[in-house]
């Protein structure tokens, strides 16, 4: 009798594990210094009251993928979604440690940062291929959105049929041009925000519940 | 004889690329670029191949050595994929002309939707 009870429990556990849908993982992607971690921190602070990681003006401050689990956000329309936020290192095709020395880092520290950054980029690409269900693509609205890395990454995201929201970040800066980003990626929704000042986050949350729900 | 300073440019045909696997293509490109050569692909890389290229490039970067790649291409064009494509609504993206070179030698000067203007330095 005990055998049948144990077997039934085992089967029940197996079926639960099989049919349980895991929480969606929303990846924050974009080139270095676009404000990905500032945005991740803003989202997590707004809804959980915590932070994801430190930010810096020196590129490649985030050199490991960081995940914050079970964040529930509610849009103004009342619908909610629960997801894990995945903050990723800025993606690029080149890393030269000399660039970090221009920010005042010592050679040894700059070389270490460059090595960790290369590992971080490779890790971010791996996550995109294997573990991400939706993407917030963050762009610095003061920069040229037509840079090759953006065209490539958005193409990669599209080829995986992942839902993508494009964020035109840093609208607090005078040179910001969300319109230029909209013209570069007309096929995707573009939300202008300042994650530093928390401007227009309501629209982003609304769109997130709509696109990732 | 005095060695002439210059940069080697390899133009790789679509036929040649079609015969190669993903990793063969990536190594063909990176081996050339790490030698200081410029590679022009008649037909560029698929998104999945670009993703792998970024990953493998990152592994090859070393201090005072290889600093990565500069790459320029046009955004993919959607093609309907012929009669069957139309029937099933399938659209396949078409990779396009692509130039790849060492990041410290190849610089993009201007990029429009129908023109890429690049500058190549012979000194590393």
What attributes does this structure have?
heterodimer; A: 213 residues; alpha/beta; Rossmann fold; six-stranded mixed β-sheet; 7 helices; B: 124 residues; alpha+beta; Translation Initiation Factor IF3; four-stranded mixed β-sheet; two-stranded antiparallel ribbon; 31% helix; 28% strand; globular
Compose a concise summary of this entry.
Chain A is an alpha/beta fold and 213 residues long. Helix content of chain A is 42%, strand content 18%. The radius of gyration of chain A is 20 Å and the shape is globular.
Task: Characterise the protein shown here.
The complex is a heterodimer of chains A (213) and B (124). Chain A has helices at residues 2-19, 36-47, 97-101, 107-130, 148-159, 178-184, 201-212; strands at residues 24-29, 66-74, 80-87, 134-140, 164-169, 190-192. Chain A is of the alpha/beta class and 213 residues long. Chain A starts with a helix and ends with a helix. Chain A has a six-stranded mixed beta sheet with strand order 2-3-1-4-5-6, sandwiched between helices. Chain A has one domain (21-212): P-loop containing nucleotide triphosphate hydrolases (Rossmann fold, 3-Layer(aba) Sandwich), CATH 3.40.50.300. Chain A is globular, with a radius of gyration of 20 Å. Chain A is built from seven helices and six strands, in the order αβαββααβαβαβα. Chain B has 124 residues and is of the alpha+beta class. Chain B has one domain (9-120): Translation Initiation Factor IF3 (2-Layer Sandwich), CATH 3.30.110. Chain B has four helices and eight strands; from the N terminus they run E-H-H-E-H-E-E-H-E-E-E-E. A four-stranded mixed beta sheet of chain B has the order 1-2-6-3. In chain B, helix 2 packs across helix 3. The mean pLDDT of chain B is 86. Chain A binds chain B through residues 91-97, 111, 114-115, 118-119, 121-122, 125-126, 128-129, 146, 148, 151-152, 155-156, 158-160, and chain B through 46-48, 50-52, 54-55, 57-59, 61, 63, 67-73, 75-76, 93, 103-104, 108, 111.
